Amino acid sequence: MEELKQRIVQEGTIKEGNVLKVDAFLNHQCDVGLFDRMGAEWARLFAGKRIDKILTIEASGIGIACVAAQHFNNVPVVFAKKYQSINLDGEQYATSIHSFTKQKDFHVIVGKRFLNKGEHVLIIDDFLANGCALNGLIELCEAAGVVVEGIGIAIEKGFQGGGDSLRERGYDLQSLAIVESMDPATGSVVFR
Ligand code: 5GP
């Protein structure tokens, strides 16, 4: 998506450790008009698919997913919640996810009543790097017996490989911008 690529080039900054900061429009301040056009683009890319629900993960995925849902017939958006530690009471699907940006593990849960067996789910998230977050969300979907119809990502860092391994596993993964390389010294970003 050309508009998103331009925003990354104009407003993104590259931090140590392969972190791309886009908090001027995606991760801290939210450009809702951009989110709306991202939602329209995913609706085009996933046209014809049955989507009963959108699944994302807190915090940055929520805003994007809620705006995108308006392009999918206002389907409900469910977000996985992160906890440092949890006491499971049997009412949640749970897994553990390693956070790339925070370099620690989180327990992640979704209430069982919000993912029903046989539903068709679109997963949406802001970033895809190594794929830990998505693999965790897919695990929750498998536990619930829902069908992952597709995965919509705003920014995929292609050089970290998480996206390619999901495509090899057969998932319909649509990233709106795929960063192939980025250089913290010069600030240059190359797209796939
Ligand atoms: P993964 O689990 O695929 O390694 O990383 C994806 C998650 O880590 C995303 O949900 C996002 O919150 C965070 N993340 C990974 N790389 C970046 C990055 O370069 N910039 C930002 N802002 N977040 C990132």
TrEMBL record:
State the reactions this protein catalyses: XMP + diphosphate = xanthine + 5-phospho-alpha-D-ribose 1-diphosphate
Report the pathway entry: Purine metabolism; XMP biosynthesis via salvage pathway; XMP from xanthine: step 1/1
Any Pfam family from its record, for instance, is Pribosyltran
* Residue sites binding xanthine per the record: 20, 27, 157
Keyword Transferase attributed: yes
| GO MF term set | xanthine phosphoribosyltransferase activity
List where in the cell it is found. Cytoplasm
UniProt cross-references to CDD domains, sorted A to Z: PRTases_typeI
Asked if the record carries the keyword Transmembrane, the reply is no
| Chain ranges of the Phosphoribosyltransferase domain | 47-147
**Keywords for this entry?**
Cytoplasm, Glycosyltransferase, Purine salvage, Transferase
The main location is cytoplasm
Cross-referenced InterPro entries, in alphabetical order?
Answer: PRTase-like (IPR029057), PRTase_dom (IPR000836), Pur/Pyrimidine_PRTase (IPR050118), Xanthine_PRibTrfase (IPR010079)
Q: Name one GO biological process term.
A: xanthine metabolic process
Report the enzyme's class at the first EC level: transferase
Q: Name one GO cellular component term.
A: cytoplasm
Q: Which residues bind 5-phospho-alpha-D-ribose 1-diphosphate?
A: 129-133
What does the record give as EC number?
A: 2.4.2.22
Name the family the entry cites. Answer: Belongs to the purine/pyrimidine phosphoribosyltransferase family. Xpt subfamily.
Subunit details:
Homodimer.
Q: What does this protein do?
A: Converts the preformed base xanthine, a product of nucleic acid breakdown, to xanthosine 5'-monophosphate (XMP), so it can be reused for RNA or DNA synthesis.
What NCBIfam families does this protein map onto? Answer: PRK09219.1, XPRTase
What protein am I looking at? Xanthine phosphoribosyltransferase
Q: Which organism is it from?
A: [Collinsella] massiliensis
Classification of source organism: Bacteria, Bacillati, Actinomycetota, Coriobacteriia, Coriobacteriales
